[in-house]
Design brief:
Length: about 300
């Protein structure tokens, strides 16, 4: 089984994902625009690369985990991009959350180089990246997915084939609308409870076994003292940054507009996350949205 891979993008999600591949015995080369991000992985046995093109030398699988569509284009199709040097027959797996059309365009470009491509965005935040419990939403050819399962299974607990190229990205954007909207609803509920004198721990205990239950509530009650692992207990240290949630909502609203669809609730939630960034919380966890709600 071929275990030669390159990993490009070593941020909040990428670094623990690359670390899992390295710990699982993969022959790994890594690249990040910030050399300091590569250092822990190089010290653990990965090869540090000078560029995306350099990273893919001898790699059968190329994984990208980057902040936005332009970063993916630069790292794959740009000067010194991975696809300028990738070996024919290799597989590009982009695990970023980007515009579905960008995913399709990258896959088309990859095909001209004899490289197969999957869009495979994930859900589960940095904790899921660290423990391999991510859900991975895959767009692309089913046979290519089958060839790639031994890599993806190191990174995620559930791998879902969503359809043709771009469909993994499309499913992820729809998921993000639900995640962001439910987080705002949870935050408003805690503000209401506080205003009415309800103990937030009591609200959490009741709602996690009632109709108000959600992933956002279970993992991110947005006030301290409710759940030890919640970002609110740690200064909203990010599992998933608020600025990235705003970016994902941008993408969802753009995709909706291209389909002639209006998403009024998502638009309102997007504006709250924009306000959160302006308030200086953009690099905090997205549950910090409670900080821009009225007290």
């Amino acid at each position: 089984m071929d275990t030669r891979a390159a990993f490009i993008g070593l941020g909040t999600m990428g670094r623990p994902m690359a670390s899992r591949l390295l710990a699982a015995g993969w022959d790994l080369s890594v690249f990040d625009a910030d050399p300091a991000a590569m250092r822990p992985l190089v010290e653990a046995g990965a090869r540090g690369a000078a560029s995306p093109a350099d990273a893919v030398a001898d790699a059968s699988f190329i994984v990208t985990m980057l902040p936005n569509s332009q970063h993916v284009l630069d790292a794959t199709t740009g000067q010194d991009g991975a696809l300028t040097a990738a070996a024919p027959g290799s597989v590009l797996i982009d695990m970023s959350t980007i515009n579905p059309m960008t995913s399709r365009n990258v896959a088309t470009f990859a095909g001209t180089r004899g490289v197969a491509a999957l869009d495979a965005p994930v859900s589960g935040s940095s904790a899921g990246a660290a423990d391999g419990s991510l859900t991975i939403m895959v767009g692309g050819d089913a046979d290519v997915l089958d060839r790639s399962r031994h890599l993806l299974s190191v990174l995620g607990a559930r791998i879902v084939h969503c359809g043709r190229s771009g469909m993994g990205s499309a499913v992820k954007l729809a998921n993000q609308v639900m995640a962001a909207t439910s987080m705002v609803a949870v935050a408003e509920s805690f503000r209401l409870a506080q205003a009415l004198g309800v103990d937030p721990r009591l609200l959490y205990d009741v709602s996690t076994s009632s109709s108000g239950d959600s992933w956002s509530l279970r993992t991110r009650p947005p006030v301290p003292g409710v759940l030890d692992s919640s970002p609110a207990n740690h200064g909203f240290r990010p599992g998933f940054k608020a600025d990235l949630m705003r970016k994902d909502l941008d993408l969802a609203l753009s995709a909706a507009a291209s389909a002639g669809l209006d998403l009024p609730l998502a638009a309102a939630v997007h504006d709250l996350y924009a306000d959160l960034g302006k308030a200086g919380f953009g690099d905090r966890d997205f549950s910090a949205v409670i900080e821009v709600l009225p007290r």
